[in-house]
Design brief:
The protein is an all-alpha fold. The protein has ten helices and no strands. Helices cover 65% and strands 0% of the residues. The longest helix is centred in the first third of the chain and has 32 residues. The relative contact order is 0.10.
């Protein structure tokens, strides 16, 4: 299969998958926090049932209103029944899920890496949006991501098994150590446990040498975004920002830019 055909297939699949990712983003936190399979009514509630509905008025979304991106544009970003404004993260998730795969095909040296990176990106997008909305990085997504990275390392898709294991352990221990130091110095939580596992997952996919670069990129972007949000009054200085989305950005940029960027800033990747 040529790179062009693969890029097109992954992109089209990504736009469709993006619609399901939005379901995961909306429903998984409800399923985890409620401890129940029901939401409001006595009906089965999971990632597949009941059918998607408007969170505002409860009207079931029909097929023509569920076409990735196109339906959002056609509806003007609002529910056709109650005129509720659809949050921008819905089309953003679909767009990222469809746009990132062709970039991986172009940037990465093998089609195996591009396909694997696509699945990583889809999971990472879910984690980032859930963390933004709920300050939560569910084990249901981070733990499988760790195991997937370790299994892929057996084929040396991104890194060797030794570096993947060291990356998973090192990522977790590094954030655990930072958090423990913060508890001793400032008597408060510095990094959430979900971040421990997400950083471990990134380490299992990319290997331990990538972790300093991922952390540097995440910290720099996080600082810039945080200061900008405070400056325009969208965030209070006293409240921490979720760090998961910045880790995701750091990991995706590392996948896309690879060794060149790390060596440019002097890291031994």
């Amino acid at each position: 299969m040529t790179d062009g055909i693969l890029a097109a297939l992954l992109s089209v699949t990504g736009f469709c998958v993006g619609s399901f990712l939005n379901v995961v983003v909306h429903r998984l936190p409800i399923m985890l926090t409620s401890g129940s399979v029901t939401e409001g009514k006595a009906q089965r509630f999971n990632l597949f049932t009941p059918r998607s509905a408007c969170p505002s008025c409860g009207r079931t979304i029909v097929a023509r209103e569920n076409i990735p991106l196109l339906s959002y544009i056609a509806l003007g970003g609002r529910c056709s029944a109650c005129n509720w404004r659809i949050p921008v993260h819905y089309p953003a998730v679909e767009l990222l899920a469809g746009v990132l795969p062709p970039l991986f095909v172009i940037a990465l040296p093998s089609q195996q890496q591009a396909i694997a990176a696509t699945f990583f990106a889809w999971s990472a997008i879910c984690l980032a949006v859930i963390d933004i909305r709920h300050k939560l990085l569910p084990d249901a997504l981070t733990i499988p991501l760790i195991w997937a990275g370790l299994l892929l390392s057996l084929g040396s898709i991104f890194t060797t098994p030794e570096q993947a294991i060291a990356g998973a352990v090192g990522g977790y221990v590094a954030f655990w150590t930072i958090d423990q130091a913060g508890r001793l110095l400032w008597r408060r939580v510095v990094i959430g446990h979900g971040d421990f596992k997400l950083f471990a997952a990134i380490g299992s996919w990319l290997g331990w040498p990538s972790l300093p670069y991922v952390l540097l990129v995440a910290s720099c972007i996080g600082a810039v975004v945080g200061l900008a949000l405070i400056a325009i009054g969208w965030h209070e200085r006293s409240k921490p920002l979720p760090f998961g989305p910045f880790l995701v950005v750091g990991a995706l940029l590392t996948m896309l830019t690879g060794q060149a960027s790390a060596r440019w800033i002097g890291l031994p990747l």
